[in-house]
């Protein structure tokens, strides 16, 4: 598959034009024109690049790429080393941030629901990245936390009473703690995200809505995995997902 064709297909599938993002989505670093092998990962770290080189990948596709709006743009030190490896081995780097979070089937939020066994009932009106759902029967917040821990193989942090009853759910993967008030307004009994901030604790306590911080990396492993499977199924590309351990 030609690089330009793959880029066009992914940009169209994930509707990149709909999003004002913190980084460029799509092809971030140009490599060889012909693509047969694609390595997927959450973040374009040096460890992932080295795995791509060893696997002889033609392209890497990630959720967390490079060239973030708030970063120093100079290519020095760590950035030079990462970029140098990609260029030396002629490997393409594709990255999809908010478009991958939001996709209704392959997205991080949709895929996390599948992994957790949660049924999506709607997207939040005020913040569409938040998905809403309802448990088939009420559970205690502590039971929800234990179920999430078992499914994600990572112990989440529960803020709220373990014995409080939960029926209505809201979730958004990654660093979505600032969306908590939208989830509260939408009627959630519990909001799950990847990260948590100091102020989140007070908001959970004062609102009576439980907050579950399940890990930024842990909640965002599934969109790229699903996207790799899609590329294999639809285009016959050889793909592999590599989970570089990250405790955050």
Walk me through what this model shows:
The structure is a single chain. This protein is an alpha/beta fold. It has 2 domains: 3-101, NIF3 (NGG1p interacting factor 3)-like (Udp-n-acetylmuramoylalanyl-d-glutamate--2,6- Diaminopimelate Ligase, Chain: A, domain 1), CATH 3.40.1390; 108-216, Udp-n-acetylmuramoylalanyl-d-glutamate--2,6- Diaminopimelate Ligase, Chain: A, domain 1. It is built from 10 helices and 11 strands. It has helices at residues 3-13, 46-55, 77-88, 98-102, 108-116, 141-152, 180-185, 198-207, 216-219, 222-235; strands at 26-29, 37-43, 59-64, 92-95, 120-123, 131-140, 157-159, 165-172, 190-193, 210-213, 238-241. The strands form 2 sheets. It has a 6-stranded mixed sheet. A 5-stranded mixed sheet has the order 1-4-3-2-11, sandwiched between helices.
Strand order, largest beta sheet: 5-6-8-9-10-7
CATH homology superfamily name of the largest domain: NIF3 (NGG1p interacting factor 3)-like
The H/E string reads HEEHEHEHHEEHEEHEHEHHE
Q: What sort of overall outline do the alpha carbons produce when their principal axes are compared?
A: elongated
Give the tags.
248 residues, alpha/beta, Udp-n-acetylmuramoylalanyl-d-glutamate--2,6- Diaminopimelate Ligase, Chain: A, domain 1, 2 domains, 6-stranded mixed sheet, 5-stranded mixed sheet, 10 helices, 23% strand, elongated
Task: Summarize the helices and strands and which ones pair or pack.
Blueprint lengths: L2 H11 L12 E4 L7 E7 L2 H10 L3 E6 L12 H12 L3 E4 L2 H5 L5 H9 L3 E4 L7 E10 H12 L4 E3 L5 E8 L7 H6 L4 E4 L4 H10 L2 E4 L2 H4 L2 H14 L2 E4 L7
Parallel strand pairs: 2-3, 2-11, 3-4, 8-9, 9-10
Antiparallel strand pairs: 1-4, 5-6, 6-8, 7-10
Helix pairs in contact: 2-3, 5-10
């Amino acid at each position: 598959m030609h690089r330009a064709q793959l880029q066009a297909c992914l940009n169209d599938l994930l509707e990149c034009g709909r999003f004002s993002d913190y980084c460029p989505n799509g092809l971030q670093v140009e490599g060889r024109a012909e693509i047969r092998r694609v390595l997927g990962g959450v973040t374009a770290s040096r460890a992932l690049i080295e795995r791509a080189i060893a696997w002889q990948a033609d392209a890497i596709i990630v959720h967390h790429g490079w060239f973030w709006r708030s970063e120093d743009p100079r290519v020095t030190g760590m950035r030079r080393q990462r970029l140098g490896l990609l260029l030396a081995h002629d490997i393409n780097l594709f990255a999809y941030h908010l478009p991958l979070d939001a996709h209704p089937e392959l997205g991080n939020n949709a895929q996390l629901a599948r992994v957790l066994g949660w049924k999506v009932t709607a997207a939040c009106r005020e913040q569409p990245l938040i998905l809403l759902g309802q448990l088939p029967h009420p559970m205690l917040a502590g039971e929800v936390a234990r179920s999430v821990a078992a499914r994600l193989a990572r112990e989440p942090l529960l803020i709220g009473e373990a014995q409080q009853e939960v029926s209505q759910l809201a979730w958004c993967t990654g660093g979505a703690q600032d969306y908590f008030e939208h989830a509260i307004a939408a009627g959630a009994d519990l909001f799950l995200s990847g990260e948590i901030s100091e102020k989140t604790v007070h908001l959970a306590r004062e609102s009576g809505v439980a907050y579950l911080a399940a890990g930024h990396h842990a909640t965002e492993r599934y969109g790229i995995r699903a996207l790799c499977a899609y590329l294999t199924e639809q285009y016959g590309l050889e793909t592999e997902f590599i989970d570089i351990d990250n405790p955050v």
